[in-house]
């Protein structure tokens, strides 16, 4: 059986977890406290970050995009990268949007400041960064609403890795209760659809020691 090394609120790890469940692949889940710099873990991934997926034979894959595309190749149903080149290009564009732009403008400013600083011992949260994250998230929710007005899912008519990536980031922020869903009904409806999928159940069951989830986090009806 495969083993996934992860951190609870890492959207990159959440992405891979959802992909594994969408593909109906059984796997073991292990929390890796990357700040401890364990030598056995560094032997799997010298970069020292998660996610890392270890195959049954011992081969280790690192990075959410690498793992997700690998899984989509060897388990082609359901196809999560799109069925045609233009579809795959749009999926990858949106993955980049959320994994780079959203992460820098929102995830790092909220999860990074409110949670990761505590674990890493980097001092008190930066209130200016947190305010910026709260302001920036509206732009991204507006963009999700814009896309959903024109498409069934973010990249087209089928749910893809673009939706999974976006939902992974939003779910981490939503754990803290920091997503203003009621101000963005289009994005809220999209998230409700993906949140209700069986592949999301384990994500909604997360409970981080010392950091309880928001009251509505696991509520499918918000």
Number of helices: 8
Class per helix and strand makeup: alpha+beta
List unreliable stretches of 5+ residues. Answer: none
Taken in chain order, the helices and strands follow as EHEHEEHHHHHH
Strand order of the largest sheet: 2-1-3-4
Helix content: 40-55%
Classify the beta-strand content into a percent band.
5-15%
Q: What would you say the CATH architecture of the largest domain is? A: Up-down Bundle
Let me know the average pLDDT: 95
List keywords for this structure.
alpha+beta, Glutaredoxin, 4 strands, 222 residues, four-stranded mixed beta sheet, globular, 2 domains, Glutathione S-transferase Yfyf (Class Pi), Chain A, domain 2
Structural account:
The protein is built from eight helices and four strands, in the order βαβαββαααααα. The chain has 222 residues and is an alpha+beta fold. The protein folds into two domains: 2-74, 3-Layer(aba) Sandwich (Glutaredoxin), CATH 3.40.30.10; 85-201, Up-down Bundle (Glutathione S-transferase Yfyf (Class Pi), Chain A, domain 2), CATH 1.20.1050. Strand 1 (2-6), helix 1 (11-22) and strand 2 (27-31) form a beta-alpha-beta unit. The chain starts with a strand and ends in an 18-residue tail after the last helix. The mean pLDDT is 95.
């Amino acid at each position: 059986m495969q083993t996934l090394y992860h951190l609870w609120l890492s959207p990159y790890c959440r992405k891979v977890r959802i992909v594994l469940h969408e593909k109906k692949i059984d796997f073991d889940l292990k929390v890796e406290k990357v700040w401890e710099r364990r030598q056995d873990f560094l032997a799997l991934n010298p970069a020292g970050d998660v996610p890392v997926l270890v195959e049954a034979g011992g081969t280790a894959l690192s990075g959410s995009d690498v793992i997700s595309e690998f899984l989509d190749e060897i388990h082609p149903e359901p196809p999560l990268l799109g069925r045609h080149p233009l579809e795959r290009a749009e999926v990858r564009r949106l993955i980049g949007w959320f994994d780079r732009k959203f992460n820098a403008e929102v995830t790092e400013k909220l999860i990074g400041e409110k949670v990761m600083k505590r674990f890493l011992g980097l001092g008190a949260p930066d209130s200016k960064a947190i305010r910026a994250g709260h302001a920036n998230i509206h732009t991204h929710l507006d963009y999700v609403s814009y896309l959903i007005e024109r498409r069934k899912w973010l990249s087209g008519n089928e749910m893809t890795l673009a939706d999974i990536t976006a939902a992974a980031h939003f779910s981490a922020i939503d754990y803290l209760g920091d997503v203003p869903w009621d101000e963005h009904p289009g994005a809220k409806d999209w998230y409700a659809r993906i949140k209700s999928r069986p592949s999301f159940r384990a994500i909604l069951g997360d409970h981080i020691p010392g950091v309880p989830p928001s009251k509505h986090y696991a509520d499918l009806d918000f």
